[in-house]
Design brief:
By secondary structure, the protein is an all-alpha fold. It is about 80% helix and about 0% strand. The chain contains twelve helices and no strands.
Length: about 190
């Protein structure tokens, strides 16, 4: 029972207010109970008592993200990356940066992810959109073109880009890629659609 667990950990804090572990446990319990403010408060206290604990850092990053405080979320995900080079944390950091409109740093993080994972249509499309947000149409176009240039025989990448162009009402660009795809491989049924 969560309520009984909360009572017990609150009792622990009445004995030792400096117990970072008790604050962290209460943060976890309050999050499970949907009491986000209390969860954040205890997570912040746990972190202040032990700033080196990566679990406290990640808890705060996740809590701030879930409440839409993307600037704080990005700050804590960045700290977590310094502690642990985890690709999932890098993705979460990039998402926080995007939501906080820090597009330039988000692109840098996506580039780092790409170095580790290799080129992917989703990363390229995201970077393309971020370059567009920054008003750098040339870099945006180069990003999509690089997806094709890096692997010209990859029909799937071309179809993903063509689909993106169709969804963003860039019919001429989509048509150009689809025609090139059909010239390269006439048996590509998706290109006919």
């Amino acid at each position: 029972n969560f309520d009984i667990a909360v009572e017990l950990f609150e009792k622990c804090l009445s004995i030792n207010q400096e117990s970072d572990a008790a604050h962290y446990a209460l943060s976890d319990l309050y999050q499970a109970l949907g009491k986000t403010e209390s969860s954040i408060s205890h997570a912040e206290t746990a972190y202040k008592l032990d700033e080196s604990n990566r679990w406290y850092i990640l808890r705060l990053a996740d809590l701030y993200y879930s409440t839409g405080n993307y600037h704080k979320s990005a700050e804590f995900f960045e700290m977590a990356i310094e502690e642990e080079k985890n690709i999932d944390i890098k993705f979460q950091y990039a998402e926080s940066l995007i939501h906080s409109n820090n597009y330039k740093r988000a692109i840098e993080m996506l580039d780092e992810i790409e170095v580790e994972m290799g080129k992917s249509p989703n990363l390229s499309l995201t970077k393309h959109d971020l370059y567009k947000e920054l008003g750098d149409d040339e870099a945006a176009q180069k990003e999509l073109q690089s997806l094709i240039d890096d692997n010209p025989s990859n029909v799937e990448n071309k179809l993903v880009i063509a689909d993106y162009f169709l969804r963003t009402n860039q019919d001429a660009a989509a048509e150009k890629i689809l025609i090139e795809t059909l010239e390269q491989n006439p048996n590509t049924g998706e290109a006919y659609i």
